[in-house]
Amino acid sequence: MSAAPALDPKGDRILIDKPWAMFPLLYLMQAMPVHIVQDVSTLVYKDLGIPNAEIAKWTSLIALPWSMQFLLGPLVDFNSTKRRWILGGQLFIAIGLILAALSIGTKDAFAVSLAILMVTAISSALCNIATDGFYIISLTKYQREGLAPVQTTCYRLGRLAVVFGMVKGAGWMISQQQVAPERAWTTVLTIAAVVYLLGHVVLRLVLKPVESDEPRPETEPNQTGQNLKRTLALVFTGLTTYFALNGLVRLVAHGLWSLLGADPVGKWKGWMLSAPVDPEILRWGPIPAGNNPLLAELIQFVVCGTIAVASQAFFRRSVKGSEMETGLRTFFFQDGIVPLLIFVLFYRFPEAMIGKMTGLFYRDDLTKGGLGLTTEIVGDIKGLFGVIGIIVGGIIGGYIVHRVGLKRAFWMVALAMHVPNLLYLAASYQQSMFADNMMLLRAVELVDQAGYGIGYAAYFVYLMSFAAKGHYQTTHYAIAAGLGALCISLAGILGGILQSNFGWSGTFWGVMILGIPALWTLLIIPVEQDKSVQVQVE
Model's pTM, two decimal places? Predict the structure, then answer.
């Protein structure tokens, strides 16, 4: 006679009896590629001498896969098992990190490493979707609630290891050991890749299959192949639409620059289309247009716009009547979707711009409006004190939301997120005072990131309430999280434009102005009291 299934204290059947043996490591590893691409890469390229605007634009672009999780979610949800997606994605990430490390010292380091990190980000996005889905379907509600603090702490430890450990290590090698930046970053990226690969090997041993993690039954011939084609069509649509709109915006900006006097050294010079001074700085479009940047942007707009329209038409034809269409429709046609979309795109926008641009602000020379800090000091400020701030803020925000409810807490925590941005505006006007006072800068980063952690608590609870509806929870969560991450990429691109045109003071004034629509979103979203959702800070 077979033994009775094990039950948790709430009476639910236990599928994994030792979740602590796998999920802490899973979420620690989940943080590593995300923050290498989104945070560390900006400092790598700064040390390689790449201009701020190009860094902000291209590091925001390679972060788009996390924004496009809403396109990738159905592919993971409807094909194969979450376990296979996790292990396969981690292997690709490890290979990508190794190749990125090797590319830093090459002649075309900027372009090559960007391409490698883009593929790594896609693998990470797929792996993240599978990890979150596996967490939901393999644990009971009681287990998820008990493991939530450990899960989120391990994610933050992964961020700490990357933003503090890697940046501090590279900075120490550059400043104390007089190692060339290229060699220093190659070394720390290689170490990170080896550590990640070792974690992957461990998970291959401890991440056991569970019966709830089964592929969905085939509802059409060659379902996996069809869903792969549909996903690629969606990705092509998203990327080419981005490039088409980018070309359109630059054409309009160049036209406005012409109308405003066409001064190549005036305050609107950042809107002027010009060929890159350094041919090693990657720029989309100039190949078929020679040295004519205006023609290059026009070609980009026409070609990418045409591909976007064709890809979208193919997707609409191929997805009709499929389960993927059902998963997408149940999210995008639910009640309250328009206010949700506005909320996820604007609520975190100012703070996302701060997160992308402050590392560059710290590193820029005093003569350029920055604070002139070394890479080592930036690792100390952002990596250590920033992560401590977000941990403390997450705990405070989670307590506030749980204690008083989301509806009453929202305005309080939103102000906590956006008001500390005034500190960076003050630093841009009092450069010497802030640059000479490390304790003051650490306090600024600590307060800012604590405010972000507090504000993110309510954001996460609200998104989870939407994602938890219906039968496609993995798909819905991926859509909500991906759309929320889109603001990070857009904020970085806008931050680069503002900085190149208006300097650092103008950038931080832009952050403060964008806080108005961020807070306005709280007036248009329907909010219900909900104290049952566990809070996670990314």
Answer: 0.72
